[in-house]
Amino acid sequence: MRHSTARNSTVEGTRGHEVRRNGTGPDADRTAATAAAGPAEAAGPAAPFRTPDRDQDTEGPVSSGARATAGDPDARWLALLMHAAFFLLLSASLARFLMRHPGETRTPWIIALSAVLAVLHLLGPVFGSRPTPRRLTWLGVLVAVWMVLVVLAPSFAWCAVPLFYTGLRILPPRAALALVALLTVFVVAAQLRLATGFDPNLVLAPPAVAAVASAVFVHMQRQAVRQRELAARQRELIDDLLRTRRELAATERREGTLAERQRLSMEIHDTLAQGLSSQQMLLQAADRSWDTDPATARRHVLTATGIAEHNLAEARRFVHDLAPADLAEGGGLEAALRALAARETAQADAHLTVRCHVEGVPAAALPDRVQSALLRIAQGALANIAEHAEATIAALTLTHLDDRVVLDIADNGRGFSPAQQAAHPSAGVRGHGLPAMRARVQQLGGTLTIESAPGEGTVLSAAVPLPHSPAPAATEEHA
């Protein structure tokens, strides 16, 4: 037969072309962007000595200093250390004075001022950590009492070290440095009073200690500010990533819903819609021959009944797992294609003969998705042949190759121009057939090839790569 020879040569040419084009499709690389702030950006302008936590005042008698350092274990530890150092230095200075100057008239004043200084230091956290008028007044009284003590007893000068920390923690930068300079002057003056003569070490050592202590404290404060800023940026970045993930998940859900709708529409088109169309044609034929040829009309009705039973099985299968009913009956894709060919031949009532051929042996069982897609393509193609091609013979050829499986559907019908059909697709429900077949094959990474010409029949070839083999690059059509 001329068509059979043309079909065989066409199929062989298609396979050769597919083997030449065997290669992997473009890979979709996933990249992850990482954001990090550099040191210069983290530093920004000159950071203040006070941390953001200290900008929050407290209400009532609650210790605001404890609240300011509650979230930072290192700051809380440093505050406790400074409190302990202050009372230790105060006690040591008082003990030294009492041991060196027992029974002096100024002793009661020294003891009283020491007690006042201790009470003032204990009351400090009550006034909060912000530079409010109450807090500044408390700091001024504390420094004034200490200065009086240093004037009366120079041994109290070393209590200035914890006061450095208090001033740097509360005051703005310039005011804090001015206070440190003032305290340092009093310490130098007190040390010179205690010395028997002029000692350059006593003049230079206290300013050096004050400068080192201030620099270390300022550095720690700025590092804390930078860490808080970095943590805030990281939280913003994490929030952005979480929001992006939520948006991506919502997009994927929408795309999955649309894909499932498209798949269901193709399933219904290739099964129920095709069966209902066949039933309609059979019942119309039975109606036309009911009076003149009752036997033929009855045969048409019985054939329509068989189609209805098969559609019912398909509908029930949709409810369960949407797998084709022919595949659910067992026997695999080969048995399903033979059953389809026999059913289409019976439904055509000798107007169309459908033959099925299987070539090769699969190395492993085909995936369910591949079997279902190829069976649906065969159903849709045979439905188009029965309705449009006016063919008398159609052939289903399933070929198992090493790296793919190929399904060829050929007919000796009137044919058509694939290029013209692609440029001007037919309107209506029937126009869903070829796009649905192409979508099925593309979802599996395969190719759909259509070779046809007016009056020369049609050969439709669907090639699907096996899971272990690379997918073809793209779908092609040959006129």
UniProtKB/TrEMBL annotation:
Reactions that this protein is recorded to catalyse: ATP + protein L-histidine = ADP + protein N-phospho-L-histidine
Transmembrane segments: 77-97, 109-127, 139-165, 177-196, 202-220
Listed PROSITE patterns: HIS_KIN
SUPFAM superfamilies for this protein: ATPase domain of HSP90 chaperone/DNA topoisomerase II/histidine kinase
Polar residues bias (residue ranges): 1-12
Ranges where the record places region Disordered: 1-68
Domain spans labelled Histidine kinase: 374-468
InterPro entries per the UniProt record, alphabetical: HATPase_C_sf, HATPase_dom, His_kinase_dom, Sensor_HK_TwoCompSys, Sig_transdc_His_kin-like_C, Sig_transdc_His_kin_sub3_dim/P, Sig_transdc_His_kinase_ChrS
Essential cofactor(s): [4Fe-4S] cluster
Annotated protein name in UniProt: Oxygen sensor histidine kinase NreB
